[in-house]
Amino acid sequence: MRATDLCFTEKVELLEKLNRGVSVRRLSEEYGVGVSTIYDLSKQKDKLLEFCIESDERRLLKSRKTPHRAKSSDLDRVLKERIRHRRSESVPLSRETIMSQARRYHDELKIQGSCAYSIGWYQKFQRRNGIKTVKICGDRGSADHEAAKEFVEEFARIIADEKLSPEQVYNADETSLF
C-alpha cells in the first residue's frame, strides 16, 4: 500500500465514518491508508477534533496534515490581529515590518526563550494563519475612504434626482477622456 498523507478534513471525515460503523478495512481501502493508521487516528480523535475547532482558518484544514501549533499562541494571536487591523486601514505591511513587530511583541509579552523571527519563521507564520501577501496597487492604499463613502451617497442621490437609467451612468476613470 502506498503512503498516503491525509489532510485534516479527510481525517475528520474518516473518523465520522468510523463513528457511524463503517469497517476499518473498508476505510483503509477507501482512503488508501493502513489499518494501523486508522487505529492511530482513532486514538488521536479528541486531539484532532480540538485542533479543528480551535483553527481560525478553516480553509487551511484542507492542506494541513499535522496539528503543529505556534510556540507562542499569544504572539500569533496578537500579531495576526495587528495585521488585520492595519490591513483594514489599507496600511501596507512588508515582511520586515511584520518580523520587526513580532520581535517587539516577543519582548512585550515576555515570551521565554529566543526566536530569530527569520524569513523561515515568517513563512511558517503565514501558512499557519492563512495570511497572504497582498500588493496594494496604484492609489488604493492612499484612498480617502470617508470621501469615497460620501461620494457614493451623493452620486446615488444625483441618479435618483435626475431619474437616470443604468445605461446613462458609466465610469470614465482611466480612459484619459477627462
**Helix content class:** 55-70%
How many H/I helices?
Answer: 8
Integer-rounded radius of gyration:
25 Å
Oligomer state of the chains in this structure: single chain
Structural class: mainly alpha
Shape: flat
Number of strands: 0
- Summarize the helix and strand pattern as letters: HHHHHHHH
Low-confidence stretches: none
N-end to C-end Cα span:
67 Å
Strand content: under 5%
Average pLDDT value? Answer: 77
- How is the biggest beta sheet arranged? none
Short description:
The protein has 178 residues and is mainly α.
What would your notes on this structure say?
The protein has 178 residues and is mostly helical. Among the domains are: 55 residues; 57 residues. The protein contains eight helices and no strands. The longest helix has 18 residues. The radius of gyration is 25 Å and the shape is flat. The chain starts with 7 loop residues before the first helix and ends in a 16-residue tail after the last helix. The mean pLDDT is 77.
